[in-house]
Amino acid sequence: MRGFTGYLQNSSQLIQQASAKKLEDIEIDLLCEGIFRHYGFDFRQYARASLARRIQSFMELENINSISDVQNKILHSQQVMERFLLNLSVNVTSMFRDVGMYLAFRKKIVPVLHTYPSIRIWHAGCSTGEEVYSLAILLQEEQLADKATIYATDINEVAIKKAKEGIFPLQVMQTYTTNYLKAGGKKEFSRYYTAKYDHAILAPELRNKIVFAKHNLVTDSSFNEFTVIFCRNVMIYFNETLRSRVHHLLYNSLCRFGTLILGHQETINLTPTRLQYKTLDEQYSIFQKRA
User: Which of the residues 22, 103, 119, 290 could staple to 148 if both were Cys, CB 3.0 to 4.6 A apart?
Assistant: First the structure.
């Protein structure tokens, strides 16, 4: 009898869990639809498990009890929406974070860039700017800065505003210095910033080469033709349909023989444009457009 009672209890718990999961899916669908209709940001095809985790994290930060309450607050407050976007798009980032990629870029891409009369680089999903400024330093050291323009875009206006400032906590500069040297840095890293109180202010010569702008990879179109495109660790949150759409956008935004650089764990395999690229560095996901 006890075994049967336990079976009924377990069955009841499974039913309740399934019901709660179904309700959560409905709430997420409604939240995404509301955001799309009101703000134009389309999260409807983001990977569901990742999106659910980000929403739960936001609820904890904001002390909100349900996804329905998240929707209510977001639709009635631009400030809440901005905080939600920041939480949704935040990535672990630092200057010269993936040192191997920068070494590969110096060795395999820089010589090619010297053959161009001008260079346009798009850094899609720039977050708060650490990797963009790393690229600006690299270009300066490789005598490419004078003919290069970096277009740094992100979905989040708060992140873009912080990136524009080029100000970072002084306490992280030691780590950044170590990364810089491992990534092939050629000078004293301290020459690229000024220490003031407990912050490091990056040199104006770096910021002057960067154009920051808001751009949504999901809904916006191409806005230029680029020599190099960085789109690193952005599409890991997208489902297959959305990734395919963004890959088409990136391909159409590259010039002939242009370079696409994805995140360390990302690849063009199983994408609709995979046959249109030549692999330059498989380990660091560096690809060249064939035509």
Answer: 119
Contact 28, 46 (CB under 8 A): no
For 99-289, CATH number out of 3.30.450.20, 3.30.559.30, 3.40.50.150, 3.40.50.720 equals: 3.40.50.150
Question: For residue 272, which of 231, 230, 243, 233 has the smallest C-alpha distance?
Answer: 243
The three-point CA angle 200-201-202 to 5° equals: 115
- Give the contacts of 154 (CB within 8 A, at least 6 positions apart): 89, 125, 126, 127, 160, 163, 214, 215
Neighbours of 5 (CB within 10 A): 9
CA 39 to chain CA centroid, Å, is 20
pTM of the prediction?
0.82
- Tokens 């499974």 — which residue? 14
With contact defined as beta carbons under 8 Å apart, do 154 and 125 qualify?
yes
The letter for the amino acid at 49 is A
Sign for the pseudo-dihedral over CA of 245, 250, 251, 252: positive
Rounded CA-CA distance 113/259 in Å is 10
Which pair of structure tokens corresponds to residue 41?
A: 């940001």
pLDDT one-digit tens code per residue, 53-107: 889 999 999 999 999 999 999 999 988 988 888 777 666 688 999 999 999 999 9
Phi, psi of 63 (to 5 degrees): 60, 50
Q: For the chain, which residues make up each domain, given as ranges?
A: 2-89, 99-289
